[in-house]
Predict the structure.
Amino acid sequence: MANSIDSLSGAIMERLFVELEASARHVHLTEADALALFGHKLTRKRDLSQPGQYLCEERVTVVGPKGSLSRVAVLGPERPESQVEISLTDARVLGVEVSVRLSGDIRDTPGIRLWGDRGEVTLARGLVAAKRHIHMTPRAAQLQGVKHGDLVRLQCLTARPLIFEDVAVRVSDKFATYAHLDFDEANACGFRPGDLGRIVHG
Amino acid sequence: MANSIDSLSGAIMERLFVELEASARHVHLTEADALALFGHKLTRKRDLSQPGQYLCEERVTVVGPKGSLSRVAVLGPERPESQVEISLTDARVLGVEVSVRLSGDIRDTPGIRLWGDRGEVTLARGLVAAKRHIHMTPRAAQLQGVKHGDLVRLQCLTARPLIFEDVAVRVSDKFATYAHLDFDEANACGFRPGDLGRIVHG
């Protein structure tokens, strides 16, 4: 089974496969929260696969009632509301209950404390476990017969193969086509960088 | 969707479903290794779902090159060879590479250090990530149309539904019928105690 996009032309990829990516725990911040935590705006370190998104030089500590997670990645650019995306394993370390949400859907989610190198912030809400999802370009979505908002099955062609159900499809001309798993999901399927998935119909 | 065996008769359960269980990281020990670590044989604390298997009062620390895991469960009774079963998340904490194996299949697996309250042991081999598997009674296997050694799909009727592929079926009259997931897999499917799975044919 092909497990690298290098061996497939872009056209075949776009029609049949979706490259998988594992998203480590991370934080999105408002400009005000970035200023409170670091004393300055976010600093770009390197670009991520989604156009315009980047990993920042800054890191935060996420502080729960039972434990904390240090050196957690901060993703830029700044957003209208701060949000912390962790795995269920992380939730156990922190000693908190989280629900599984799509990024941005933070109604009725718990708050959490963040420490930066210049200060701390207590978010009133925004702690979530990310719901697995597939970013797609409009062209890839059309070729693969899905549309924004669909819930599909994603078969992972990985070392520990499995099929995720209820995977949210998100389509935008601002996206690159990648499926995003958290680290629990990545470990459960034995993910390695370059691994591919396939949307299964029916 | 039913997610508790309480609401289903045993007969329907046996024909259609398999109860899921999450196995935390754990250690099996030889009598000699138990003596070296604790100064005495293993002490039963409580029985597990598989007949004859039990959680012990004793705990060990698993020590890797990069980090360690403290208070790891020891399962009895003693076995002919010691074995340490961890998740891929745990492997990252320890700083080791592990392969995914069925319990007992420890050829060519890495060794690992264990600390007990009376001494330490360095295993020459036996560190594995458990391959997901279904324990079945002969009767349940017959009713569900599978046999020992089959690899099947297991659909998890859980909060984050998914279908594990390549799940090993193990049949014995010494077993109770349960599917065993590690904590990465349990978190990936949003497992809660009492959740059910279903063997999917074809």
Chain A has a mean pLDDT of 94. The first strand of chain A starts at residue 18 and ends at 23. The interface with chain B takes residues 87-89, 100, 132, 153, 159-166, 183-185, 187-190 of chain A (CB under 8 Å).
